Amino acid sequence: MLPDFLLNFTEYFQPLNLFKYITFRTIGALLTALLISFIFGGKIISLLKKMQKQGQPIRQDGPKNHIIFKTGTPTMGGLLILFAFTTSTLLWARLDNIYIWILLFVAISFGFVGLLDDWLKVSKMNSNGLKSYQKIIPQIFIAFTAAWLISENSPSDLHNSISIPFLKESILFLGIFYIPFTIIVIVGSSNAVNLTDGLDGLAIVPVMIAASSLAIIAYLAGNINFSDYLQINYIPGVGEIAVFLGAIIGAGLGFLWFNAPPAMVFMGDTGSLSLGGVIGVTASASRHELVLIIIGGVFVLEAISVIVQILSFKLTGKRIFRMAPLHHHFEQKGWAESTIVIRFWIIAVVLALIGLSTLKLR
Hints:
The longest helix has 30 residues. The protein has a two-stranded antiparallel sheet with strand order 1-2. It is about 65% helix and about 0% strand. The protein has 15 helices and two strands. The two termini are about 40 Å apart. By secondary structure, the protein is mainly α. Helix 6 runs parallel beside helix 11 and helix 7 packs across helix 13. The chain has one domain.
Protein backbone atom coordinates (compact mmCIF):
# COMPACT_ATOMS: atom_id res chain seq x y z
CA MET A 1 0.00 0.00 0.00
CA LEU A 2 2.66 2.53 1.05
CA PRO A 3 4.99 1.85 -1.91
CA ASP A 4 2.10 1.85 -4.39
CA PHE A 5 1.05 5.28 -3.13
CA LEU A 6 4.29 7.03 -2.17
CA LEU A 7 6.29 6.12 -5.28
CA ASN A 8 3.99 8.42 -7.23
CA PHE A 9 5.61 11.38 -5.48
CA THR A 10 9.32 10.58 -5.87
CA GLU A 11 9.86 13.47 -8.27
CA TYR A 12 8.81 15.86 -5.50
CA PHE A 13 10.67 14.14 -2.65
CA GLN A 14 13.62 11.95 -3.64
CA PRO A 15 13.96 9.98 -0.36
CA LEU A 16 10.67 8.24 -1.24
CA ASN A 17 12.71 6.21 -3.73
CA LEU A 18 13.63 4.05 -0.72
CA PHE A 19 10.23 2.40 -1.11
CA LYS A 20 11.45 0.84 -4.36
CA TYR A 21 13.86 -1.36 -2.44
CA ILE A 22 12.75 -4.71 -1.08
CA THR A 23 15.40 -4.61 1.66
CA PHE A 24 14.12 -1.28 3.02
CA ARG A 25 10.51 -2.42 2.95
CA THR A 26 11.38 -5.75 4.58
CA ILE A 27 12.93 -3.94 7.54
CA GLY A 28 9.93 -1.60 7.64
CA ALA A 29 7.52 -4.54 7.64
CA LEU A 30 9.47 -6.26 10.42
CA LEU A 31 9.52 -3.21 12.69
CA THR A 32 5.87 -2.38 12.00
CA ALA A 33 4.69 -5.91 12.84
CA LEU A 34 6.79 -5.84 16.00
CA LEU A 35 5.30 -2.49 17.03
CA ILE A 36 1.75 -3.72 16.35
CA SER A 37 2.44 -6.78 18.52
CA PHE A 38 3.66 -4.64 21.40
CA ILE A 39 0.73 -2.22 21.14
CA PHE A 40 -2.06 -4.79 20.84
CA GLY A 41 -0.50 -7.86 22.47
CA GLY A 42 -1.57 -7.15 26.03
CA LYS A 43 -5.10 -6.18 24.98
CA ILE A 44 -5.58 -9.30 22.85
CA ILE A 45 -4.27 -11.55 25.63
CA SER A 46 -6.62 -9.91 28.15
CA LEU A 47 -9.53 -10.49 25.78
CA LEU A 48 -8.54 -14.13 25.28
CA LYS A 49 -8.36 -14.63 29.05
CA LYS A 50 -11.88 -13.27 29.46
CA MET A 51 -13.16 -15.57 26.71
CA GLN A 52 -11.28 -18.61 28.04
CA LYS A 53 -11.90 -18.79 31.76
CA GLN A 54 -9.89 -22.00 32.15
CA GLY A 55 -7.40 -21.45 29.34
CA GLN A 56 -6.25 -24.06 26.84
CA PRO A 57 -7.22 -27.65 27.78
CA ILE A 58 -4.09 -29.64 28.64
CA ARG A 59 -3.68 -33.23 27.39
CA GLN A 60 -4.23 -35.61 30.28
CA ASP A 61 -1.85 -38.12 28.69
CA GLY A 62 0.84 -35.47 28.25
CA PRO A 63 3.72 -34.57 30.57
CA LYS A 64 2.43 -34.17 34.12
CA ASN A 65 4.25 -30.87 34.70
CA HIS A 66 2.16 -29.31 31.91
CA ILE A 67 -0.98 -29.90 33.98
CA ILE A 68 0.68 -28.17 36.93
CA PHE A 69 2.36 -25.22 35.23
CA LYS A 70 0.42 -24.56 32.01
CA THR A 71 -3.20 -24.89 33.11
CA GLY A 72 -5.11 -21.64 32.70
CA THR A 73 -2.92 -20.21 29.92
CA PRO A 74 -5.11 -18.93 27.06
CA THR A 75 -4.66 -20.12 23.49
CA MET A 76 -5.44 -18.55 20.08
CA GLY A 77 -2.44 -16.22 20.42
CA GLY A 78 -1.99 -16.84 16.71
CA LEU A 79 -4.61 -14.12 16.23
CA LEU A 80 -2.02 -11.57 17.40
CA ILE A 81 0.55 -12.95 14.95
CA LEU A 82 -1.93 -12.97 12.07
CA PHE A 83 -3.14 -9.44 12.80
CA ALA A 84 0.40 -8.06 13.09
CA PHE A 85 1.91 -9.56 9.94
CA THR A 86 -1.21 -9.11 7.79
CA THR A 87 -1.49 -5.41 8.65
CA SER A 88 2.23 -4.85 8.19
CA THR A 89 2.27 -6.70 4.86
CA LEU A 90 -0.62 -4.65 3.51
CA LEU A 91 1.26 -1.49 4.45
CA TRP A 92 4.72 -2.34 3.11
CA ALA A 93 4.32 -4.86 0.27
CA ARG A 94 3.61 -4.17 -3.39
CA LEU A 95 -0.02 -5.23 -3.67
CA ASP A 96 0.25 -5.86 -7.40
CA ASN A 97 2.40 -8.90 -6.64
CA ILE A 98 0.54 -12.23 -6.95
CA TYR A 99 2.78 -14.02 -4.45
CA ILE A 100 1.76 -11.62 -1.67
CA TRP A 101 -1.90 -12.46 -2.22
CA ILE A 102 -1.21 -16.20 -2.37
CA LEU A 103 0.60 -15.98 0.96
CA LEU A 104 -2.13 -13.89 2.59
CA PHE A 105 -4.77 -16.29 1.29
CA VAL A 106 -2.99 -19.33 2.75
CA ALA A 107 -2.08 -17.61 6.02
CA ILE A 108 -5.63 -16.41 6.73
CA SER A 109 -7.33 -19.60 5.50
CA PHE A 110 -5.09 -21.96 7.46
CA GLY A 111 -5.42 -19.63 10.44
CA PHE A 112 -9.20 -19.89 10.23
CA VAL A 113 -9.03 -23.71 10.24
CA GLY A 114 -6.77 -23.53 13.28
CA LEU A 115 -9.10 -21.03 14.97
CA LEU A 116 -12.04 -23.43 14.61
CA ASP A 117 -9.92 -26.21 16.11
CA ASP A 118 -8.83 -24.03 19.03
CA TRP A 119 -12.36 -22.79 19.65
CA LEU A 120 -13.75 -26.32 19.83
CA LYS A 121 -11.07 -27.29 22.35
CA VAL A 122 -11.78 -24.27 24.53
CA SER A 123 -15.57 -24.41 24.30
CA LYS A 124 -15.70 -28.14 25.07
CA MET A 125 -12.76 -28.00 27.52
CA ASN A 126 -11.26 -30.96 25.72
CA SER A 127 -7.84 -31.28 24.08
CA ASN A 128 -9.51 -32.84 21.04
CA GLY A 129 -10.79 -30.24 18.58
CA LEU A 130 -11.59 -30.88 14.95
CA LYS A 131 -11.28 -34.45 13.75
CA SER A 132 -8.24 -35.17 11.58
CA TYR A 133 -10.21 -35.27 8.32
CA GLN A 134 -12.00 -32.04 9.22
CA LYS A 135 -8.61 -30.31 9.37
CA ILE A 136 -6.89 -32.04 6.47
CA ILE A 137 -9.63 -31.71 3.82
CA PRO A 138 -9.84 -27.87 3.95
CA GLN A 139 -6.04 -27.70 4.16
CA ILE A 140 -5.74 -29.75 0.98
CA PHE A 141 -8.27 -27.54 -0.81
CA ILE A 142 -6.45 -24.36 0.27
CA ALA A 143 -3.07 -25.84 -0.68
CA PHE A 144 -4.43 -26.95 -4.06
CA THR A 145 -5.53 -23.40 -4.82
CA ALA A 146 -2.11 -22.04 -3.81
CA ALA A 147 -0.26 -24.72 -5.80
CA TRP A 148 -2.31 -24.00 -8.91
CA LEU A 149 -1.70 -20.25 -8.62
CA ILE A 150 2.04 -20.78 -8.14
CA SER A 151 2.12 -23.08 -11.17
CA GLU A 152 0.18 -20.66 -13.35
CA ASN A 153 2.41 -17.73 -12.45
CA SER A 154 5.71 -19.56 -12.85
CA PRO A 155 8.21 -18.75 -15.61
CA SER A 156 7.72 -21.01 -18.62
CA ASP A 157 11.05 -22.77 -18.06
CA LEU A 158 10.05 -23.65 -14.48
CA HIS A 159 6.43 -24.57 -15.09
CA ASN A 160 5.51 -27.66 -13.02
CA SER A 161 9.16 -28.12 -12.03
CA ILE A 162 11.25 -27.99 -8.87
CA SER A 163 14.90 -27.07 -8.33
CA ILE A 164 17.55 -29.57 -7.29
CA PRO A 165 19.90 -28.38 -4.51
CA PHE A 166 23.67 -28.44 -5.07
CA LEU A 167 23.26 -28.49 -8.85
CA LYS A 168 23.56 -25.41 -11.08
CA GLU A 169 20.20 -24.14 -12.38
CA SER A 170 18.96 -27.72 -12.40
CA ILE A 171 15.27 -28.52 -12.46
CA LEU A 172 13.19 -31.65 -12.19
CA PHE A 173 10.03 -31.63 -14.30
CA LEU A 174 7.12 -33.15 -12.36
CA GLY A 175 4.34 -32.55 -14.88
CA ILE A 176 0.96 -33.56 -13.48
CA PHE A 177 2.60 -34.50 -10.18
CA TYR A 178 3.71 -30.93 -9.47
CA ILE A 179 0.46 -29.81 -7.84
CA PRO A 180 0.11 -32.94 -5.64
CA PHE A 181 3.75 -32.54 -4.62
CA THR A 182 3.24 -28.86 -3.73
CA ILE A 183 0.11 -29.72 -1.74
CA ILE A 184 2.18 -32.20 0.29
CA VAL A 185 4.84 -29.54 0.91
CA ILE A 186 2.32 -26.94 2.11
CA VAL A 187 0.10 -29.22 4.18
CA GLY A 188 3.08 -31.15 5.54
CA SER A 189 4.87 -27.96 6.57
CA SER A 190 1.74 -26.61 8.24
CA ASN A 191 1.16 -29.71 10.33
CA ALA A 192 4.86 -30.16 11.15
CA VAL A 193 4.95 -26.69 12.73
CA ASN A 194 1.72 -27.53 14.53
CA LEU A 195 3.31 -30.66 16.05
CA THR A 196 6.36 -28.66 17.15
CA ASP A 197 4.26 -26.12 19.04
CA GLY A 198 4.28 -27.90 22.39
CA LEU A 199 6.62 -25.91 24.65
CA ASP A 200 6.94 -22.20 25.41
CA GLY A 201 8.81 -20.55 22.53
CA LEU A 202 9.69 -23.87 20.89
CA ALA A 203 7.91 -23.33 17.56
CA ILE A 204 8.04 -19.57 17.04
CA VAL A 205 11.83 -19.18 17.03
CA PRO A 206 12.48 -21.95 14.45
CA VAL A 207 9.67 -20.39 12.39
CA MET A 208 11.49 -17.03 12.47
CA ILE A 209 14.79 -18.72 11.61
CA ALA A 210 13.18 -20.54 8.67
CA ALA A 211 11.43 -17.33 7.58
CA SER A 212 14.73 -15.42 7.66
CA SER A 213 16.46 -18.07 5.55
CA LEU A 214 13.60 -18.27 3.06
CA ALA A 215 13.45 -14.46 2.85
CA ILE A 216 17.10 -14.45 1.74
CA ILE A 217 16.43 -17.23 -0.77
CA ALA A 218 13.33 -15.50 -2.18
CA TYR A 219 15.16 -12.18 -2.47
CA LEU A 220 18.08 -13.77 -4.32
CA ALA A 221 15.84 -15.87 -6.59
CA GLY A 222 13.84 -12.74 -7.47
CA ASN A 223 16.93 -10.70 -8.39
CA ILE A 224 18.22 -11.41 -11.89
CA ASN A 225 21.80 -10.40 -11.02
CA PHE A 226 22.12 -12.40 -7.81
CA SER A 227 20.36 -15.45 -9.25
CA ASP A 228 22.69 -15.39 -12.24
CA TYR A 229 25.77 -15.08 -10.00
CA LEU A 230 24.64 -17.92 -7.72
CA GLN A 231 23.35 -19.95 -10.68
CA ILE A 232 19.94 -20.49 -9.16
CA ASN A 233 16.69 -20.25 -11.08
CA TYR A 234 15.44 -16.68 -11.57
CA ILE A 235 11.76 -16.19 -10.67
CA PRO A 236 10.39 -12.71 -11.44
CA GLY A 237 8.42 -11.15 -8.59
CA VAL A 238 9.26 -13.76 -5.96
CA GLY A 239 11.64 -11.35 -4.19
CA GLU A 240 8.62 -9.46 -2.82
CA ILE A 241 8.00 -12.44 -0.54
CA ALA A 242 10.89 -11.17 1.59
CA VAL A 243 8.68 -8.25 2.69
CA PHE A 244 5.96 -10.66 3.81
CA LEU A 245 8.48 -12.80 5.68
CA GLY A 246 9.93 -9.69 7.30
CA ALA A 247 6.46 -9.05 8.72
CA ILE A 248 6.34 -12.68 9.92
CA ILE A 249 9.65 -12.23 11.75
CA GLY A 250 8.47 -8.99 13.39
CA ALA A 251 5.17 -10.57 14.44
CA GLY A 252 7.07 -13.60 15.73
CA LEU A 253 9.40 -11.45 17.84
CA GLY A 254 6.42 -9.60 19.25
CA PHE A 255 4.63 -12.84 20.05
CA LEU A 256 7.77 -14.29 21.68
CA TRP A 257 7.72 -11.35 24.09
CA PHE A 258 4.49 -12.79 25.51
CA ASN A 259 5.22 -16.46 24.80
CA ALA A 260 8.63 -16.63 26.50
CA PRO A 261 8.64 -18.94 29.55
CA PRO A 262 6.40 -18.84 31.45
CA ALA A 263 4.07 -18.17 28.52
CA MET A 264 1.27 -15.65 28.92
CA VAL A 265 -0.42 -17.08 25.82
CA PHE A 266 -0.11 -20.01 23.41
CA MET A 267 -0.29 -19.49 19.65
CA GLY A 268 -2.52 -22.55 19.26
CA ASP A 269 -3.43 -24.09 15.93
CA THR A 270 -4.51 -20.60 14.83
CA GLY A 271 -0.88 -19.58 14.62
CA SER A 272 0.99 -22.83 13.98
CA LEU A 273 -1.09 -24.01 11.02
CA SER A 274 -0.93 -20.55 9.45
CA LEU A 275 2.82 -20.08 9.90
CA GLY A 276 3.62 -23.59 8.70
CA GLY A 277 1.50 -23.10 5.60
CA VAL A 278 3.29 -19.83 4.81
CA ILE A 279 6.69 -21.52 5.06
CA GLY A 280 5.54 -24.25 2.66
CA VAL A 281 4.18 -21.74 0.14
CA THR A 282 7.37 -19.66 0.28
CA ALA A 283 9.57 -22.69 -0.38
CA SER A 284 7.35 -23.71 -3.29
CA ALA A 285 7.16 -20.25 -4.84
CA SER A 286 10.95 -19.84 -4.71
CA ARG A 287 11.44 -23.40 -5.98
CA HIS A 288 13.40 -24.49 -2.91
CA GLU A 289 11.04 -27.17 -1.65
CA LEU A 290 13.85 -29.69 -1.13
CA VAL A 291 16.00 -27.17 0.73
CA LEU A 292 13.06 -26.65 3.10
CA ILE A 293 13.68 -30.19 4.40
CA ILE A 294 17.06 -28.91 5.66
CA ILE A 295 16.04 -25.42 6.79
CA GLY A 296 12.91 -26.74 8.50
CA GLY A 297 14.73 -29.80 9.83
CA VAL A 298 13.42 -29.30 13.39
CA PHE A 299 9.84 -29.48 12.11
CA VAL A 300 10.68 -32.48 9.95
CA LEU A 301 12.18 -34.36 12.91
CA GLU A 302 9.15 -33.61 15.07
CA ALA A 303 6.77 -34.87 12.37
CA ILE A 304 8.85 -37.99 11.69
CA SER A 305 8.94 -38.82 15.41
CA VAL A 306 5.14 -38.90 15.48
CA ILE A 307 4.89 -41.00 12.31
CA VAL A 308 7.51 -43.47 13.54
CA GLN A 309 5.85 -43.72 16.95
CA ILE A 310 2.44 -44.49 15.46
CA LEU A 311 3.78 -47.03 12.95
CA SER A 312 5.91 -48.77 15.56
CA PHE A 313 3.03 -49.08 18.01
CA LYS A 314 0.60 -50.35 15.38
CA LEU A 315 3.05 -52.87 13.90
CA THR A 316 4.86 -54.09 17.02
CA GLY A 317 2.86 -52.81 19.96
CA LYS A 318 5.98 -51.00 21.21
CA ARG A 319 6.87 -47.32 21.32
CA ILE A 320 10.27 -46.10 20.14
CA PHE A 321 10.03 -42.80 22.01
CA ARG A 322 8.83 -42.32 25.56
CA MET A 323 6.35 -39.82 24.13
CA ALA A 324 5.86 -38.12 20.78
CA PRO A 325 6.44 -35.51 19.37
CA LEU A 326 10.18 -35.59 19.99
CA HIS A 327 10.31 -32.70 22.47
CA HIS A 328 8.03 -34.64 24.84
CA HIS A 329 10.43 -37.58 24.67
CA PHE A 330 13.20 -35.41 26.11
CA GLU A 331 10.82 -34.03 28.73
CA GLN A 332 10.11 -37.58 29.84
CA LYS A 333 13.85 -38.19 30.07
CA GLY A 334 14.08 -35.39 32.60
CA TRP A 335 15.36 -32.52 30.47
CA ALA A 336 14.23 -29.10 31.63
CA GLU A 337 11.82 -27.33 29.27
CA SER A 338 14.21 -24.42 28.76
CA THR A 339 17.03 -26.83 27.91
CA ILE A 340 14.95 -28.56 25.23
CA VAL A 341 13.78 -25.27 23.73
CA ILE A 342 17.21 -23.65 23.54
CA ARG A 343 18.86 -26.79 22.13
CA PHE A 344 16.17 -27.03 19.46
CA TRP A 345 16.80 -23.37 18.62
CA ILE A 346 20.51 -24.09 18.21
CA ILE A 347 19.75 -27.02 15.91
CA ALA A 348 17.40 -24.80 13.88
CA VAL A 349 20.16 -22.20 13.39
CA VAL A 350 22.67 -24.82 12.29
CA LEU A 351 20.24 -26.39 9.83
CA ALA A 352 19.31 -22.98 8.42
CA LEU A 353 22.98 -22.22 7.77
CA ILE A 354 23.41 -25.57 6.04
CA GLY A 355 20.32 -24.87 3.94
CA LEU A 356 21.63 -21.44 2.93
CA SER A 357 24.98 -22.95 1.99
CA THR A 358 23.23 -24.86 -0.82
CA LEU A 359 22.96 -21.52 -2.64
CA LYS A 360 26.72 -21.49 -3.16
CA LEU A 361 27.64 -25.19 -3.07
CA ARG A 362 26.78 -26.02 -6.67
